[in-house]
Amino acid sequence: MASAFENKILEMRDKHEISLDLLTYILKESTEDERKFLCEKAQEVSQKIFGKSVYLRGLIEFTNYCKNDCYYCGIRCSNKNASRYRLSEEEILSCCEKGAELGFKTFVLQGGEDPYYNDDRICAIVRAIKEAHPDCAVTLSIGEKSYESYQRYFEAGADRYLLRHETANEEHYAMLHPKNLSGAHRKQCLRDLKKIGYQVGCGIMLGTPGQTVAHIYEDIQFMQELQPHMIGIGPFIAHKDTPFKDQPSGSAEETILLLAILRLLFPKVLLPATTALGTADAFGREKGILAGANVIMPNLSPSNVRDKYLLYDGKICTGEEAAECNACLRARMKKIGYTVVDSRGDHPDFA
Ligand code: 5AD
Ligand code: FES
Fold it and tell me: Are 100 and 127 in contact (CB under 8 A)?
C-alpha cells in the first residue's frame, strides 16, 4: 500500500501540479524515506525520456566584465578585487575546437553583461562557431538584451539562450538586485526569447537571502506559464566581495529535492546538475543526476582565466584543464550507471 505521501508524489507526476503545502512539506519536513521515494520517481521519469544518458554542455566563460551590480554575484561591477578578462574571438574558437575534440556538441557562451561585446561582435562569434562546427548547438548566456538584439543573435545561428529569472517575486527580486534592474523586465526577456524561437532556459538559485518557500512556489508557477526548455538551479553560495558575504549558503539537499520536483512537473525539460551544486556537495552533480537531472556543464574556459570567473567562493574545477574535467565527469557518471553521450541534446520537442 502506498502511503499518503507517496500518493501525492504520484499525483504530482501524473498531473504535473504541486501545491504550496506539498512543496513546503517536501523541502522542509519530509523524511529520509520520503525523499528517497521522490528522487526514485524523478529518476524513473527522466530515464523513460532520456534513458541513462547525460548530455554535455561545454561552458566558455568569455568575459567577466559586467555592467550590473547584482548583490550576490562575485563579478558585479563594484567588485574592485575581481581581475577582469575578455577572451578574443580566436581564443573562444580554440576553446570550441578543444571541446569538439572531446566530443562536445553544445557550446555555451556565458559572460557578464559586457558592452564591449556589442551585437556585431556577438553575431560574428556565433557565425564563426557555427561555421567551424555546423553540427554543434550554440547557447548564449549573456543577460538582458533588446528583442532586436536577441533576434539578430538568433539569425546569426544561436540555438539556445540561458537567462535565469533568479526569482519570480518582484519584491524578492528587488532584495537581490539594484534599482535599475527589474524582475518584470527579466521575465519579459524570457518571453521574447521564446517568441523568437530559441530553446530557452530560466532558473533560480536556492537559498538566496530572503527567499521563502512561497517564492519558490511562485517560481514554479512562472515556469508553468513560460514552459522553458531548460531550468538551471543551484544553491546560492556567498562571495566574499559582495554585500551578501556573510549570508548562509543555500542547501544542496534542498536543491536536489527541487530538481526531483521539477523533473516530475516538467518531464521533458533539460535539467543540469550544476557546478554550484557540485561546489556545495562533493557529490552534488551525481546526486542531481540521480534525482532526475540529465545535463552537466563542464568548463571549457582556458585554464589561465578560470579562477577569475568566480560568481561565488570555492568554485570547483578552477585548477583543471578542459580534458581533465571531461574525463572526470565521464568517469563520475559511469560510476553511477549513466553514460555521457556525444549528441547535441536538444529538447525533445526540437529534436
Ligand atoms: N551563488 C550561486 N550562483 C550564483 N549565480 C550568480 N552568483 C551566484 C552565487 N553567489 C548564478 C546566477 C546566474 C548564474 C550565471 O549564476 O543564478 O544567473
Ligand atoms: Fe572538473 Fe571533476 S569536473 S575536475
Answer: no
